[in-house]
Predict the 3D structure of the following.
Amino acid sequence: MVGSPDGLTVPGAHASVSIPLAFHALARSADRVLIGTVVESISLWEDDTGGSRRIVTYHRVRVDRQATDEAPGDVWVRCMGGIVDGIGQRVEGEAALRTGLRAMLFLTSRSDGTFSVLGLAQGMYPIKRFDDGVERLAAPRSPGIVLQPQPDAAMSVLPGKTVDDAILMVREARRSRAN
Amino acid sequence: MRTDALAGRHATLATGVLGGLVLSLTPSTADAFCRTTTCDPQTQDCDPPLGAECNTTGLPLFWPGLCVGYSLQKDASPQVAFDEFRRVADSSFSAWTSVLCNDQPPSIQLEDLGPIACDQPEYNQRAGNANIVMFRNTSWPYANATHTLALTTVTFNTQTGEIYDVDMEINSAQVRLSTSDSDVKYDLQSIITHEAGHFLGMAHSGDVSATMYARYQQGSIALRTLEADDQAGICAVYPPGRQASACDTTPRHGYQDTCGEGPPPSTDGGCTTSGAPTGSRSGGAAALLSLVALSWRIRRRARR
């Protein structure tokens, strides 16, 4: 078992590149979990915390519903990659937010007041209206190469769930953390 | 410090490492490989679900020249000494360049430019660069991604699809890596071979057996070698006889051993700048900014 500083579960000792996150670990570790729509995106060059220089994109997300108790209002979500003045940068495995996208987001706080998506692409589940007319969560996009997901992995558990069910599941997982 | 010449540096053509491992390719009619494109994820859905058709929006990414250099972080890792790191990395890149496309090699060669001091992923618009494979030994800088074992950042020209720079980070701070054929932990060669596909412009494949498929079995070393779909992909992106610039492994704007913008590039190496620099930088801001102030700040930075 490989440890991780924030308590995220790392199932098994043999994997490559990205490890599927357990749903409960994702729900409990997130600072905020919300349903929101990206209404604006701004890309720029930035010095990263690790000292690297990269293109990042800030997405303003209008919060529709929340699975965690937070004050209402828009949030800014920072993702690696984007396009600035004809130069594009892509980070395999990063969450692919875009203007107009509605999704369930598992977010972690950054020191500057913005958020990042916990688990990169594994923390973002687009919401789509399916043939039965019901809005459900879709599979995360571009999660990179991952170990074959276990049944309890978020990317196994969440796709296909209705928004209401997904919010209830998150709240239940976080309640069990508190107890 | 900037190095203008690569003379005297360790340089091994990747094709030489696995000289005996050549694979004959017959084009398949059921190829499932995909290419990374210039598709803008901020405006379009660029990532099809696993197993779905490839995204074809935008221009496919490619290296324009016949030769590309890569550099290996000189400190390597306490888990993997540099010589072993070099052996594994060279074998991983060679897996792609050793393919035969109708009995001819693909029109791309990857050259190990040897150890490098810089250990940060970056693309310098006004200075030299390097395509670096690096370890993160003391801490993984992405607090939101502790489950991630490796990250590859590809920088490209959105108007042409030309790849400018690729950097590969390996999470050795939290992950037990292995390089042997037995007692496999996280197989470094499998990781780098898959990421080398992204280095070359490949996206994830819909073929479950392919090295570029986005799944991996525990303890497996299967991704070290390419499958027919991967071979078809590299031959399609870099077909023999492709019209390409001459063999020059110098990174864009010249080779630079250290991180950062450094001194301006010389005029005798690399390419000329085509992208307009933004000049915008931010090292983080005070916490607890109001949303209004935050919005203003982000907009302001973007305009600079």
